[in-house]
Fold this sequence. Notes:
The chain is an alpha/beta fold. It is 43% helix and 19% strand. The chain has a seven-stranded parallel β-sheet, with helices on both faces. The protein has a six-stranded parallel β-sheet with strand order 10-15-14-11-13-12, with helices on both faces. Strands 1-2 form a two-stranded antiparallel ribbon. It is globular, with a radius of gyration of 23 Å.
Amino acid sequence: QFANEREYDVGTNLPNNLPIDDSEIQDYINDLKLTAANKDIAPHAHQVDAITHALSCRRTLLLSPTASGKSLIIYVLMRRWLDENPDSKMLIIVPTISLVSQLHSDFADYANKTDWNADDMVHKIYGGQEKTTNKRVVISTWQSIYKQPKKYFDQFSGVIGDECHQFKAKSLTSIMTKLRDCPYRIGTTGTLDGSQCHKLVIEGLFGPVYKVTSTKKLMDKKLLTNLDIDCLLLSYPEHVRQQHKRMTYQEEIDWIVTNPERNEFITNLTSNLKGNTLVLFQFVEKHGKPLFEMIKERCPDRKCFFVYGGTDVDAREEVRRIAEEEDSAIIVASYGTFSTGISIRRLHNVVFSSPSKSRIRVLQSIGRQLRKSEHKEIAKLYDLGDDIHWKSYKNHTLRHFSERLKIYDAEGFN
Length: 414
């Protein structure tokens, strides 16, 4: 529009789309002999569509909801790219340490019936790991490499950014700008935060957004577990509401998460839920730890785990593995460690114990429990809101609760 008004000519040097035959991609996928947990699998139509689109555009941002099988899409794209560029290396960037390990183990799982070996081909980088390698695929957290010099990035001609809504814009821009000769750029995300600015920043680095499918469509096709959301609004007595009117946001949050009666309510709720339960909290010292101690004391016969930023990567992976084999485990985890990317099929319940209005955090957290499993018919989410309003004044977290209801409504959840 700017150029047209001033009669400027505009040219781009983006690579032209490569016309790719759908049947050729399908044949290639068949040749990969994909497996999951030692069983043969075939990608769903939406996954094949995303793979075909990414291979033909070579620059795109795949918007595909949590539990829609993004790691399989990434695996096929990575394999195809390695085959087509035998002398090149690929960089896969993820936001968390847990995702580095999980993606590596997913790749090993998919390649189980072939001679492609994930340990030989893939190098993992997170805090303290060696940055240089001869392996052809590098999976790294963005935090580990964004300060590396330009020269370091010259070795890569393909990049995939997984869950790229979580990258700090400045650090991601720094990495992507240093990847000078890198025509192949694919981003994946389950959620954009709804702001135009956020979308434009990520589109500028990877390419135009391509919507692969939606959570509601996957539920309707029975590819995801159906979700029931119980919105529990905790009402406080009148004298308490009057006493705490006009608190600042921070004062209100501190008061809510340290409220003994509220924590007692969460403990009662959690201990009475059947199946594996994930309790998500925001603050480690003042909320997560006390809550975990209360739940552990109440449920001596159940396996209880506590996961936060300080839990090392192997222990997190172990918790995930144990939860897959249990049917009544309780995981008390911080949003930061367990809201994005972590995959637990046998997860029956999620409890939001700390209030949040972040669209990304809410939808990513919900995604943790939507994966299909023969061990569950339906997934349950318990969303706690706090009503401390006084007369016409609505408290901060009550307003955030309303925002979450709008998100659930927009996504078509029950």
